[in-house]
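Forwarding these from the shared drive since the link keeps breaking.
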Amino acid sequence: MSSDFETYEQDFGTITAEVTNKIGKIPKLSGEEKTQLVLNVDKQLEEVRELLEQMDLEVREIPIQSRAMYTSRLKSYKQEMEKLEKDFKRSRIAYSDEVRNELLGDDAISSEGQLIKLREERAHLLDNTERLERSSRRLEAGYQIAVETEQVGQEILSNLHTDREKIQRARERLRETDSNLGKSSRILTGMLRR
């Protein structure tokens, strides 16, 4: 049974490689040639879907011990198929630069120029906005430092004022003590003379 699965895998690899190659060519073509290639790819994608269904049936018949490995392989193939279908849809509506310029003429070139100019202006505006935000952050940080410095200065002034009052009180006490010592000294001198 697993040999059937591996045969389907080989077919899957071959067809998806061809489809990928053709999907890359679609945008470069136009007219009948493009239509034919789109139909051909669509047919091959249907074959791939059928292969995936066959692989799914084979996985269900594989013993449980080996099933997990084959299930994960099948899952990755299904994801690859989804990617191919998305790429196919995109390629059907995409046009090469030459075809687009041919269809749109000089307008495409001028609109491309305008688009480039708009992108440049947008990038310039984003740069300016970023610079402005950086400057605003620096100003905010500077303001914060100024506020903190002012608070520290007020605390220092308050401490200096308190220290000045203490020094003045100590000086006043010292004068009183000096005056009292002078009186005491006179009294003692007067007592010694008697």
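-- next protein --
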Amino acid sequence: MVRFALTIVRHGETRYNKDKILQGQGVDEPLSATGFRQADAAGIFLSNVKFTHVFSSDLLRAKQASTFSGIESKSESQTASTIIGKNKFCKDIIIQYDARLRERKYGIAEGRPLSDLKAMAKAAGEQCPSFTPSGGETLDEVRARAKNFFEFLCQLSIEEECQKEQAVLGMAGNGLETLGGKPVFPLRNHCCGLELNSDTDKDTKMLNPNILVVSHGAYMRNWFGYFVLDLKCTLPSALKKSQLSSVSPNTGVSHFIINLGNGDVIKPEISCVCLNRDDHLADVNTENM
């Protein structure tokens, strides 16, 4: 049986996020001062998780945040770098940048206020989230990118499981555990009420690989829609339907457990532990008041 953990984080805030200006792929603003603080807070929140793989969009705002991480001095290594820079177990892990994780392309609406996109959609007689401006990507195209990347992660996990079965047993697992079959999220998991405990039973199972992905709001919303509508992902009982259609806050954290059974990439079993979690931002938001 192949099982792996997937943590998906939205990039930190940019000036354009704050001003409600569409960035898409053609406009790539660096993180704002608040965005750096958000990325730093996310890194602290996830610092106890031993990630085995880290993937990030290749756009600047997803990559950046290295000024706080101490990994690089260049501006082109942002949110993903900060999170890993705060991690207790994998500071030296290589971040893999992937164009499939880029934000939805908004064509002629990029660099313009969100209100302009809403006006375009209204003039076309369509709802804003599903409207495609000239030169932009359709929702189906964005979902296809997310599907392709997710199937890549599944295949990666299957191949590593095969390699592990051939290797010597007894290697240490990662820091994301399951207790009594229930997923335990790092720090406190408000979705299931359990806490990470280093003194769990010897029977505690480890999830490996443990993958971190840093991406963008509209892209993530489409990816999660693919999980729920196409793959019938199970959701926390406390999750409201409105949350499924909402864009993640900057550095919002979502976490999933994926069970591939006998290596079934087409019909995986997916369980959502939490969606767009942002309580790690409480102190950051207070500072901005």
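The longest strand covers residues 269-277. Strands lie at 3-10, 53-56, 95-97, 177-179, 182-183, 205-206, 210-215, 253-259, 269-277.

- D.
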